[in-house]
Amino acid sequence: MTAIEILKNMSAPALRDVLTALQAEGAGLGHFNVSDQVLLKAVVAAAAETKLPVLVGASEGERDFFGAHQLAAIVKSSRQESGLPIFLNADHTHSLEKAVEAANAGFDAVTIDFSAFPFDQNVAHTKETVQAIKAINPAILAEGEIGDIGTGSEIKETVQGGRLSTPEEARQFVEATGIDVLAPAVGNMHGMLKSMVQGKAKKHLDLERIAQIKQAAGVFLTLHGGSGTDDGHFRKAIAAGINIIHINTELRVAWRESLDESLSRDSNEVVPYKILGPVVDSVKQVVSSRLRLFHDHMATSEAVGSVA
Ligand SMILES: [Zn+2]
Q1: Which residue from 215, 163, 212 is spatially nearest to 189, judged by alpha carbons?
Q2: DSSP state of 183
Q3: What is the mean pLDDT of each run of 10 residues along the chain (308 residues)?
Q4: How far does residue 92's CA lie from ligand 1's centre (Å)?
Q5: What spacing in Å lies between the alpha carbon of 190 and ligand 1's midpoint?
Q6: What residues are annotated to the active site?
Q7: Centre of ligand 1 from the C-alpha of residue 154, in Å
Q8: Which of 56, 123, 249, 281 has the most CB atoms less than 10 A away?
Q9: The whole model's pTM is what?
Q10: Positive or negative: CA dihedral 68, 74, 77, 79
């Protein structure tokens, strides 16, 4: 029985159940950021099209624009109406207050991000935040971050970040904070270079480091800044222990290009849903193709040379 078949037999699987089932199947969960309802509609439509679980994400900036409670209400309503395992993550949360706000709004997970602080302060702030959100909802998944992968899902001139995480700091961080999910720096980076947007260059991951960190940390792992990564590396990263993959810039690029195209098609068109409908479709195609890639466990087995 596949992970999806197991999940179908559960009345309301929690995010942890979904991650456990996908991991057993050698698949990853796609995390897609949304700033507005056009992007959210695209992610939900892709989940419906592929019949695969999705994790909707919104950073502090995205939540400020959408409204944390409003976003949580629409995601909940989409989940109820579709019956699909659609979950919501408070991406890159830099304060206790914002984490508590997301937990109270009904988010399924919080990415607690104090990675800009020195290690000891990162541990202290993360631990305090984990305890606060679990007091609100014991089932909420708490993610913590170590290392530097740059900031901002944007088009960039130069490579950012660079300090990779070590298995030993991963182990220490998980033990000291009580997080359920760890986001390490393993060759990934937020945003995309212009050459990546043009498809001329791809990000490559430190696959051996991922496997070592998985072994040492013993928790679910998230890959941030997945946009522009080589397809084969995604599959190998999942095989090495990555559970959640964040895609944001690729969606933003599809949104912008499709919106430009839609607006320039007819300067007299003023009906918003006629302009925005094709944008939803374009973003949906990106999300669906990523979801299929992350779930293509047969391809994963081939990629790592497994006979299982
Ligand atoms: Zn991120």
Answers
A1: 163
A2: E
A3: 71 92 97 98 98 97 98 97 96 98 98 96 98 98 92 82 89 98 93 89 92 98 92 95 97 98 96 98 98 76 38
A4: 6
A5: 6
A6: 91
A7: 11
A8: 56
A9: 0.93
A10: negative
